[in-house]
Design a protein that fits this description.
Layout lengths: L21 H19 L1 H12 L3 H13 L4 H7 L14 E6 L6 H16 L4 E3 L8 H4 L10 E6 L3 E2 L3 H10 L5 E9 L5 E5 L6 H4 L9 E3 L3 H7 L4 H11 L7 E10 L20 E7 L3 H13 L5 E7 L5 H8 L6 E5 L6 H11 L4 E5 L3 E3 L4 H9 L4 E9 L5 E3 L2 E3 L5 E3 L19 E3 L6 E5 H6 L13 H11 L3 E12 L11 H18 L25
Parallel strand pairs: 1-2, 1-3, 5-8, 9-10, 9-12, 10-11, 14-20
Antiparallel strand pairs: 4-8, 5-6, 5-7, 12-19, 13-20, 14-15, 14-19, 16-17, 18-20
Helix pairs in contact: 1-2, 1-4, 2-3, 9-10
């Protein structure tokens, strides 16, 4: 059954703030959110209600979460329980705002500027407006800044306002860290003062910042006179933040996971351009475990034959196939390009791959399910180039279901108490959560259904765990061990393939499979604390039962 769930309804219109207050108001807005969810997607809503009726609470929450979050009133519902910033006036470095008045010099622009200045004054934050007679350029502001007080600088655009307590929250955070950039969450505010479209941001994600500036306009920076002089000119705020972030030896930017800014507008994410092709690519060993299902294997290997890559070694690990057609196909494979390892016995994904790695010749490893279908010939080169970076461990592709919806766009820890695929069931052309599904970014883990990693790094962390994660979560565990060594997992959507998920192995509905999965889930929870943890690239205010980055309600 194909079910479409509208996920960006809150962006189409911003309703006025609901008027009822107290418990009656909360009940009214809750009913409205559920009514919206049912009206926009009745079949998915009834399915979620059915799971709730069956007392399958985790499954019901997973189904309800994206439906309720799609309501235009969902954010108002969230704001009913929003906790105040709650920071009393804190000791710490002083803050000086650098205000960008924008290009609108008319009455509307002046009104926006005045609103920003009033907000700063309410937070006791002095300001300099760049582009005025006092400070025509950012460089002209340098002699006006009391550098002896080591101020924190806040680039802010006209029309943006601070949440009450924002300055104190920044000062308190700054007093406890040497980070040169501290950033916060934000939302948008329309001309009538109604808040909407919150952005609950990830922890520091340098790769995401290449494609989505989620810092400028909602951060403070520790900068010096030279920083301002060398970024003076057009788009000075963005260039100043970039310069400070990229300064050699700087600590990673620090995230304050609270909405401290109400903004008139914000930069849009941009889908990444093609990856530059620089330097030679090493031999890659593609490892494909399989059992029977020659139709799937043929599609997978035909796709590898069409793949444009200088040198590929394909290792097919046959886990006890007994189908005559499959055996005949394996025997007929061209030996110059393919090697077939016969490994009968109980299915253990980790063991099959580890044994193949021991036979592999490539400097790069590509773990590939037999039910993967190649779409474009450059997928492997894209993933390989990313995996060769000094800071990268496992690289994962964007995987689609056969109907075109997303199956994998990175892995999020803690969802459902374990780990889940991000943005699952979203269509690639949908907005989703700030287009995160379409942007290369660091993630906690990626799926081994299509994963590329340097062989040296795979072996350095001991390969896949054959004992604790024979079938499920072995990829998550591998990625987490790579991350711990400073080799961060990367999601790369410019490599997109089709995944016919679990077609050949089944869904573990038998008692033995269910018991094994329960044991692997318990091992994941015990090792990485996924029952309580919040993924650093997720957010506490996003629903822990939804793969769709839905607002927590």
């Amino acid at each position: 059954m194909r079910i479409g769930i509208p996920m960006d309804l809150s962006r189409k219109s911003v309703p006025p703030e609901p008027r009822p207050v107290g418990w009656a108001g909360n009940a009214w807005i809750t009913l409205r959110v559920h009514y919206d969810a049912f009206r926009y997607a009745p079949r998915p809503y009834l399915l979620a209600a059915w799971w709730r009726f069956r007392r399958k609470r985790v499954r019901a929450r997973a189904h309800f979460a994206p439906l309720l979050a799609a309501s235009p009133l969902a954010y108002h519902m969230w704001m009913r329980s929003e906790e105040p910033v709650g920071v009393e006036d804190a000791d710490g470095p002083p803050i000086l705002a650098l205000v960008d008045p924008g290009d609108d010099t008319g009455a509307h622009g002046q009104a926006r500027l005045a609103a920003t200045l009033r907000s700063l004054a309410a937070e006791q934050v002095p300001s300099l407006t760049i582009g005025t007679a006092e400070a025509p350029t950012l460089a002209d502001a340098v002699p006006l800044i009391p550098w002896q007080e080591t101020p924190l600088l806040m680039p802010i655009a006209a029309g943006d306002v601070l949440a009450p307590g924002a300055a104190s929250a920044y000062r308190q955070t700054a007093a406890a860290t040497q980070a040169r950039v501290i950033y916060a969450d934000d939302d948008l505010m329309n001309a009538k003062g109604h808040r909407h479209t919150p952005h609950f941001k990830p922890g520091w994600n340098a790769e995401l910042l290449r494609h989505f500036d989620y810092l400028t306009g909602s951060c403070i920076v520790r900068a010096d006179a030279r920083d301002l002089e060398e970024t003076s000119g057009p788009a000075w705020a963005k260039r100043l933040v970039e310069r400070v972030v990229q300064a050699p030896g700087s600590a990673a930017p620090l995230h304050v996971p609270k909405i401290l800014h109400h903004r008139a507008s914000r930069p849009l994410p941009r889908v990444a351009a093609a990856l530059p092709s620089e330097g030679p690519l090493p031999l890659v060993s593609v490892i494909v475990p399989t059992r029977n299902r020659v139709d799937l294997l043929r599609t997978c290997l035909d796709g590898l034959a069409r793949t444009e890559y200088p040198e590929v070694e394909v290792i097919v690990v046959d886990n006890g196939s007994d189908d005559p057609a499959t055996l005949a196909y394996l025997d007929a494979l061209e030996p110059a390009r393919h090697r077939v390892l016969r490994r009968p016995g109980p299915f253990n994904f980790s063991t099959l791959n580890n044994q193949a790695v021991a036979q592999a010749r490539g400097a790069l490893l590509c773990l590939l399910n037999n039910d993967i279908e190649v779409l474009a010939p450059d997928w492997l080169a894209i993933m390989a180039r990313q995996s060769l970076r000094e800071d990268i461990g496992a690289v994962g592709a964007r995987l689609l279901y056969p109907d075109g919806r997303i199956q994998h766009a990175g892995v999020v820890l803690g969802v459902g108490g374990g780990a889940a695929h991000a943005h699952r069931l979203l269509r690639p052309d949908e907005k989703g959560y700030f287009r995160r599904h379409a942007l290369p970014q660091f993630v906690s883990a990626v799926t081994a259904a299509c994963l590329v990693v340097q062989r040296e790094r795979f072996e350095a962390v001991g390969g896949l765990d054959e004992k604790n994660f024979a079938v499920a979560f072995n990829d998550v565990d591998l990625c987490m061990r790579l991350n711990a060594r400073g080799w961060q997992s990367l999601y790369e959507p410019r490599a997109t393939l089709v995944h016919h998920e679990s077609v050949s192995r089944g869904l573990d509905r038998d008692p033995v499979g269910a018991a094994r999965f329960a044991g692997e889930m318990a091992a994941l929870q015990a090792t990485y604390g996924t029952l309580e943890c919040v993924d650093p690239f997720h957010h506490p205010q996003l629903n822990r039962f939804s793969e769709r980055f839905a607002l927590r309600l």
